[in-house]
Write a structure and sequence with these properties.
This protein is an alpha+beta fold. It has a domain of 103 residues: Beta-Lactamase (2-Layer Sandwich), CATH 3.30.450. Helices cover 18% and strands 38% of the residues. It has a six-stranded antiparallel β-sheet. A two-stranded antiparallel sheet has the order 1-2. A hairpin with a 2-residue loop joins β1 and β2. The protein starts with 8 loop residues before the first strand and ends in a 5-residue tail after the last helix. The relative contact order is 0.14.
Length: 148
């Protein structure tokens, strides 16, 4: 995230050396547009290692924290330095049914979604792709006795 709190970039850095001699640092910047292309789906979101959603097509999800994420355990100075803010609202992922743990309602949405989540191997980013399942919404209404 940029220092101004807006969509920013993710930086990767790696030391370059020749044996024991330090030569410098190689740095790569991955901007938010590239993250969107990696996600490849309009409903996907990308979260950082602290559980902050750093890319989402849905503006209601952008810059929000995932439930039980590490960002809630960072002190205010760390939050200011990393995100230029001290507070993050969280999204809710309410389980739809105990028998289907991968299906949830996202922040109170009426339609449940199955969530496919995959972290990068280094843990720096996680991509989540929700797939809405409107048929389950109506099954839930029938199961609860609603004659809608």
């Amino acid at each position: 995230m940029g220092r101004d709190g807006r969509a920013g970039a993710l930086y990767y850095a790696h030391a370059v050396s020749n044996g024991a001699r330090f030569l410098g640092v190689a740095v790569v910047k991955l901007n938010a547009g590239a993250l969107a292309a990696m996600a490849g789906q309009s409903q996907a979101w990308v979260s950082d290692a602290n559980g902050v959603i750093i890319h989402a097509t849905d503006p209601a999800l952008l810059h929000r924290a995932l439930p039980s994420s590490r960002v809630g355990r960072l002190d205010p100075a760390q939050l200011r330095q990393r995100y230029a803010r001290e507070h993050f609202d969280s999204i809710t992922l309410a389980p739809w049914d105990e028998a289907m743990p991968a299906v949830a309602r996202i922040s109170g949405a009426p339609v449940p979604s199955v969530l496919a989540t995959r972290p990068l191997s280094d843990g720096s980013l996680t991509v989540t792709v929700p797939r809405p399942l409107p048929a389950l919404q109506y099954q839930g209404m029938r199961a609860s006795g609603c004659s809608c």
